[in-house]
Amino acid sequence: QLQLVESGGGLVQPGGSLTLSCKASGRALEDYTIGWFRQAPGKGREGVSCITADDGSAYYADSLKGRLAISRDNAKNTLYMQMNSLTPVGTAVYYCAADQSFDVSYAFLVDGYNSWGRGTQVTVSS
User: Fold this and answer.
1) CA pair distance 34, 112, nearest whole angstrom
2) How far apart are CA 112 and CA 75, in angstroms?
3) Do the strands 10-12 and 33-39 form a parallel or antiparallel pair, or are they unpaired?
4) Residue segments in the chain with a per-residue pLDDT below the cut of 50
5) What SS3 string covers the chain?
6) pLDDT given for residue 69 in this prediction
7) pLDDT at 56
């Protein structure tokens, strides 16, 4: 069974950068489409990026394009998401999620994934 553990969250100043990690165990991460989501206080879970299993294509939410970079290290069974030019809007719990199938229509939807980590807190504040 696939298990996911996020790390790398913390406090960062506006304009700063942070790289989150999603470490997988139990299965090979490269066999899954992996998505990153965030959930701000009082709001729903929002998809921000994903990377497909087959060819490693990356997708980004329109509002965040140019400020995110997702990558995968198969040897370490770990996925990374670098976030640049962070703003206070980016304050949220960030989750990684996995699914063995991929449908671009579900890339940024919670229903598109069936395995979830517990999240890591990111706070953007001066």
Assistant:
1) 10
2) 25
3) unpaired
4) none
5) CCEEEEECCEEECCCCCEEEEEEEECCCHHHCEEEEEEECCCCCEEEEEEECCCCCCEEECHHHCCCEEEEEECCCCEEEEEECCCCHHHCEEEEEEEECCCCHHHCCCHHHCCEECCCEEEEECC
6) 96
7) 87
